[in-house]
Specification:
Blueprint lengths: L1 E10 L4 E9 L2 E6 L9 E4 L4 E4 L1 E6 L4 E2 L2 E2 L4 H10 L2 E8 L7 H12 L5 E7 L5 H13 L4 E5 L10 H14 L2 E5 L3 H13 L7 H4 L3 H18 L3 E3 L5 H12 L4 E5 L1 H5 L10 H6 L10 H12 L4 E2 L8 H4 L19 H10 L6 H15 L17 E11 L18 E11 L2 E5 L2 E2 L17 H11 L8
Parallel strand pairs: 1-4, 1-5, 6-9, 9-10, 10-11, 11-12, 12-13, 13-14, 14-15
Antiparallel strand pairs: 1-2, 2-3, 5-16, 7-8, 16-17, 17-18, 18-19
Helix pairs in contact: 3-4, 4-7, 7-8
This protein binds N-(aminocarbonyl)-beta-alanine and zinc ion (2 copies).
EC number: 3.5.2.2
Organism: Pseudomonas reidholzensis
Subunit structure: Homotetramer.
């Protein structure tokens, strides 16, 4: 099985150059000028377009059981929509119930994900703590290709991890060479504000952002960062949405702490006025956590991307249809939290980031693919255009346009937070494992074609951290 992409401009996180790229058996075999065409090779004309590493979305929730319902997008429909948007890999989340075995939950999610159309991996959430959890974390890292664990600092009375769990789990991550990640919101404050707002008669979606103000995220970000600092672990903050959290990251990084931040296109582009929409179902369609923020936060997030204090873009793709959102008709805190985006992430970021001059094309590649691959130890298998790398690629048409709409998107949900937005710069072709699965609007995704991708422990950041720890090893006083 071979594919030759001719005449495109290869764009990576660090360089761009014209070249042909030959993919054989799912791997990049050759890069160069005027490459010979092997017998039977499919040829794809890349002229006038950029060839970039396929997108990696490090934060999705396909068919997640959450808030009394199940996310409407399954692993096939969601990864297929990703391919239509240029994304060729996802890292989804296994979220065990408190008291549930991590391994049992992991195998459940592996079963669900078998129908994926593109490659996938898993972070595993730590929703409770015990010796068994510690042991199973070890098992997941040693034998199941998991190198990151997620901690929800919000969602009290459900999956929230309190400080004792954070400390125990971060310490265990350090022992295992795994990256702790956090959803940073102070769950106690959110719970308190939700109850208070409802008591005041504030039951609609407009109360959602009021129950999760920016300082609630800033406090949790600061707490997680300082726990990581104290224990000497790296830390990855998912869906950073506020200036407050960003300031904490920037402060920590200025002191040399390896803290990484992820941003969602929605937080870069939408503001909290959406929750005051007169239609209940429209306002509820935007309910996700953390919520969309007042305008000033968006400019701060763009500056975070430009300055290197934010590192990845994700979607937190977690779809609920209008009938599911309606569960919170009389109580905003019961609206299932989540919005879609896997199909739109790359085009929205290109349009608002590259076209506007906020980001270079190289930064775009870093933010949509390479940085994620590096942080979660997939590089250079993913996130790179190199001989030997997986042939996961996107051919980008900088002049192509699309008007985003729930009527036409491939995501299995009846709402799109970017409804009506026209973007310039779209994937004309998406290549997964060397096969063209999206071609000028023709989606050829196949259930089960995606592979589970194991991520080895000890991403490179641990090298420097272990040397630091060695240097700072406590010494007893000899008396
Ligand atoms: O609202 C969201 N983000 N739903 C999915 C769960 C999470 O917090 O990531
Ligand atoms: Zn979250
Ligand atoms: Zn999430």
């Amino acid at each position: 099985m071979s594919l030759l992409i001719r005449g495109a401009t290869v764009v990576t996180h660090e360089e761009s150059y014209p070249a042909d790229v030959l993919c054989v058996d799912g791997v990049i075999r050759a890069i160069g000028d005027n490459l010979d065409t092997p017998a039977g090779c499919e040829i794809l004309d890349g002229s006038g377009r950029y060839l970039m590493p396929g997108g990696i979305d490090p934060h999705t929730h396909m068919q997640l059981p959450f808030m009394g319902t199940v996310a409407s997008e399954d692993f096939f429909s969601g990864t297929a929509a990703g391919l239509a948007g240029g994304t060729t890999s996802i890292i989804d989340f296994v979220i065990p119930n408190p008291q549930q075995s991590l391994l049992e939950a992991f195998h459940t999610w592996r079963g669900w994900a078998e129908k994926s159309a593109s490659d996938y991996g898993f972070h595993v959430a730590i929703t409770w703590w015990s010796e068994q959890v510690a042991e199973e974390m070890g098992e997941l890292v040693a034998h199941h290709g998991v190198n990151s664990f997620k901690h929800f600092m919000a969602y009290k009375n459900a999956i929230m991890a309190a400080d004792d769990t954070l400390v125990a789990s971060f310490e265990r991550c350090l022992q295992l060479g795994a990256v702790p990640t956090v959803h940073a919101e102070n769950g106690e404050l959110v719970y308190h504000l939700q109850r208070k707002l409802i008591a005041q008669g504030m039951t609609g979606p407009e109360a959602h952002p009021l129950s999760r103000p920016p300082q609630v995220e800033g406090e949790a970000a600061s707490r997680a960062i300082r726990i990581a600092e104290t224990l000497g672990t790296p830390l990855y903050l998912v869906h950073v949405s506020t200036r407050e959290a960003l300031d904490e990251i920037a402060y920590a990084r200025a002191k040399g702490q390896p803290v990484y931040g992820e941003v969602l296109p929605g937080h870069l582009l939408l503001d909290d006025s959406v929750y005051r929409h007169p239609e209940w179902s429209t306002a509820a369609g935007y309910v996700m956590s953390p919520p969309f923020r007042p305008r000033e936060h968006q400019e701060a997030l763009w500056r975070g991307l430009q300055s290197g204090n934010l590192h990845t873009t994700a979607t937190d793709h977690c779809c609920f249809c209008a009938d599911q959102k309606a569960a919170g008709k009389d109580d905003f805190s019961r609206i299932p939290n989540g919005t879609a985006g896997i199909e739109d992430r790359m085009a929205v970021l290109w349009d608002a980031g590259v076209n506007s001059g906020r980001l270079s094309m190289h930064e775009f590649v870093a933010l949509t693919s390479t940085n994620t691959a590096k942080i979660f130890n997939l590089f250079p298998r993913k996130g790179a255009i190199r001989v030997g790398a997986d042939a996961d690629l996107v051919l980008w048409d900088p002049l192509g346009t699309r008007t985003i709409s729930a009527e036409t998107h491939h995501q299995r949900v009846d709402f799109n937070i970017f409804e009506g937005r026209t973007v310039r710069g779209i994937p004309s072709h998406t290549i997964s494992q060397g096969r063209v699965l999206w071609a000028d609007g023709d989606l050829r995704a196949e259930p089960g074609a995606g592979r589970y991708v194991e991520r080895p422990a000890y991403p490179s950041v641990f090298e420097v951290l272990s040397r630091r720890a060695e240097h700072q090893r406590p010494t007893p006083v000899q008396r």
